[in-house]
Amino acid sequence: ENTKPYCFFQVMAIVGEHIILPCHLEPAVDARSMAVEWTRPDLKPRLVLVWRAGQKLNLDDKNPSYRGRTTLLTDKLKSGDISLKLFKVKLSDRGKYKCYVPSLNRDSVCELVVGKWASLKVFMQQIVKPPLEMFLHMFTLVLQCESKGWYPEPELLWLDAEGKILSAGPTETVRGPDDLYTVSSTVTVEKRHSNNITCRVQQRNINQIRETQIKVKGDFFPPLNHYYRAMNWKNSKINSHIKTKTWRENMQNLIRSFSQWTKKQKVTE
């Protein structure tokens, strides 16, 4: 008379997994002859699974999204286990599920949290802005990190070799029509940062972390020998005409050298 169903409050799953929404009768009684109904109150039709007389019923008003993907644990019904097993979890499966036992007129609710993680890419790009004098003291390059296909919305961080968070641009977040998130961010790396830089994307709710690392080496930065030579010629006290001509030649060499260097660089993923 006092028997009630008790479901686990919250279950987390990743898209594609087979999962169980735990639910049991307490005190434990044999549930093999009982009717059990699992529903999603927010859906129409709301029926996920109907179990009667020891078998699953394929009713016309069952939600088509769950056909062929649900069952009870038949070998555990005797001990009062009325858990729902769900195959090949979809992102659309997220939500609250109600387990109802008609003979007891009792129910219990379990929430399914569904997550999806994705691949991670880091792109390296060189930023060149006039005037070229900007390169005299420091040359910088920009790393861009992008990750697509997450759910729920993840967090993106840039870390140095010691695991400390680097100051970076704001994370851009886009939610697609499929409800999946794409996040991207950039970080500026200076030549003095000849070290490992890590891009990490994490989703704490589903305990998923993806990260990739790039080693920033000195040869990632372009050769500036022509630039320094040009500056020296510009600042020298030689004939103005010769000085200007030579300075221009060195500037052309700088641009040519930089162009050749850029072609050798590869996008890092």
TrEMBL record:
Name the SUPFAM superfamilies on file.
Immunoglobulin (SSF48726)
Specify the protein name.
Ig-like domain-containing protein
Question: Sorted alphabetically, which keywords does the UniProt record give?
Answer: Disulfide bond, Glycoprotein, Immunoglobulin domain, Membrane, Signal, Transmembrane, Transmembrane helix
Give the InterPro entries listed for this entry.
Answer: BTN3A2-like_Ig-C, Ig-like_dom, Ig-like_dom_sf, Ig-like_fold, Ig_V-set, IgSF_BTN/MOG
This protein's record includes keyword Transmembrane = yes
Kindly list the GO CC terms recorded for this protein. external side of plasma membrane
UniProt lineage: Eukaryota, Metazoa, Chordata, Craniata, Vertebrata
Organism (species): Anabas testudineus
Q: Which domain of life is it from?
A: Eukaryota
In the record, the note on similarity to other proteins reads: Belongs to the SKINT family.
> Which GO-annotated molecular functions does the record name?
signaling receptor binding
Does Chaperone show up as a keyword for this record? no
What compartments host this protein?
Membrane
